[in-house]
Amino acid sequence: MTNVARPVAQVPLAQPNIGPLEVELVNQVLASDSLAMGPFTEEFEAAVAELAGRRHGIAVSSGTAGLHLAVRALGIGPGDEVITTPFSFVASSNCVLFEGARPVLVDIEDEYLGVDPAAAEAAITERTRGILPVDVFGNPCRLPELASLADRAGVPIIEDSCEALGSSLHGRPLGGWGDIGVFAFYPNKQITTGEGGMVVTDDDDLAGAMRSMRNQGRDEDGTWLRHVQLGFNYRLDEMSAALGVAQLRRRSELKAGRDRVLAAYRRRLGEHEWLRLPEPMRGAEVDWFVYVIRLAEGVNRDRLIDQLAGRGVPGRPYFSPIHLQPFYRERFGYGPGDFPVTERVAAGSLAIPFSSRLTDEQVDQVCDALVEAVGEQGAG
Length: 380
Ligand SMILES: *Cc1c(COP(=O)(O)O)cnc(C)c1O
Prior knowledge:
Blueprint: H1 20-30, H2 39-51, E1 56-60, H3 63-73, E2 81-84, H4 91-98, E3 102-105, H5 117-122, E4 128-132, H6 143-153, E5 158-160, E6 168-169, E7 172-173, E8 180-184, E9 197-201, H7 204-214, H8 238-249, H9 251-269, E10 275-276, E11 284-285, E12 291-295, H10 301-309, H11 326-332, H12 340-347, E13 349-352, H13 360-376
Parallel strand pairs: 2-3, 2-4, 5-8
Antiparallel strand pairs: 1-9, 6-7, 6-11, 8-9, 10-12, 12-13
Helix pairs in contact: 1-8, 2-8, 3-4, 3-7, 9-13
Bound molecules: pyridoxal-5'-phosphate.
């Protein structure tokens, strides 16, 4: 008799939550003749703008496309510098490179993991044309301090709120703090459109410029073969917009699912010395995008990832710093030691499974696996 090990059930790291309403609205689009730039796109734009407390919402094909439009609409180009963070997804820095400007990376602060306002201030030069901070994992970065710095320096803020739809600070929605805010709707975000994003702003001129550049540089009335400036095809299609409308209508249900998982993690993991759970910034209401725990020095993170995998639990380093990406090291000569806080935080961070659909049994499996694995390391 061979001894066949019972397969371990796999817990998903992230999962979209698609229900009958999504299917119904997408089917409505498919049965119509409007597969692009139709009524769902307008409804989705209005709904996201309202959620962010802004006058304008412009739907785009990805968060990255939205960041690119923001940089371009602000007239940032060759010779200009934009202050931003190495503790992010690579798009928040790449969007500056798209326009031939220089992303000036500065270190983060240890608590909420956004741009350190003092480091940003020290990096201001006469070439600075903007600050592009990131709201990390759904938590705000130090927005009031950064807004006051930007004000003093006379430069705009592009708020990368791609991970922060539905979060707020002192009652003001994230995405609503910069001159332009950007959201993203990839399948692991709080709501999804498949691929997709949205730029939001209160500024009529910036909104007009981004609307035009999203749509091949057409003018406001969208005349088909009249192009008034260099533009792109960054439009969101109507099926994706319908998906977004359905997800927004279900937002409180999706958030309730995530809150249930949060409460369970807090109950099961809150008392352990070897990890730090994510905490909302004081004054913030946070709808988390991912659940990233921070491990004490004594825990070997990379070994832990292997131990968890053997128990059906995926874990991922989050983020992997931008300045240590091969492309950035080669292009700018960055290396280990350049941003010590970012590197220390990144080395001890672990994203564990998180979604509105995680069952109580799956949460138990994750917590049991973590506690056992850390115990095996002798670190528990
Ligand atoms: C998701 C995300 C983006 C945009 O991602 P897309 O895949 O282009 O939609 C940008 N910045 C951050 C910090 C993100 O997490």
